[in-house]
Amino acid sequence: MSTNVILAGVGGQGAVLASKLLARAAMERGLPVKTAETIGMAQRGGSVFSHVRMGEGAHSPLIGRGRADAIVAFEPAEAVRQLPFLRPDGMVVTSDAPVVPVSAATGGPAYDLPAIMSHLHERVGEKNLVIVDTSAAAAKIGTAKALNVVLLGAAARAGALGPITTDDLVAAVRALVKPAFVDLDLRALNL
What is the domain extent for residue 140? Predict the structure, then answer.
């Protein structure tokens, strides 16, 4: 049995660190783990996503279309972009805060947050969609730099990460995060 999770965001949001934390948590549980990242366009604002496959059935690092158990998105449009990978009863945990692409600000297609959120509600369904108020979270922890960890914590509490719990993620934060940021990330994780 495996758990397949896609982490998606834009460059600078911490998708790569989040995937490393999730993989470390799985390894500490003794689960086989495979990961793959797409970071070639990871400059600030570019799409970034990681596939994390955990458990005995994880034979390759890439998650096929319709096979993801969960999508954890640090930006709503990135959640929509990854929906083809979500299984029919899969879960989406996403931020409610957009990162508007430069193209929208320079005359390209408009970023329509209400349409994006409506699409997520229709496609995923209320019981499998967790929307995190990341502006409120950033205000409580004092920075937006740890929102990737806030979303991982929300995903763990929602059961979107399979066997991975917030306690597993606490251990991963302690092992992988620079000491100067451990307390911040632990507050973010437990928010």
Answer: 2-98+112-189
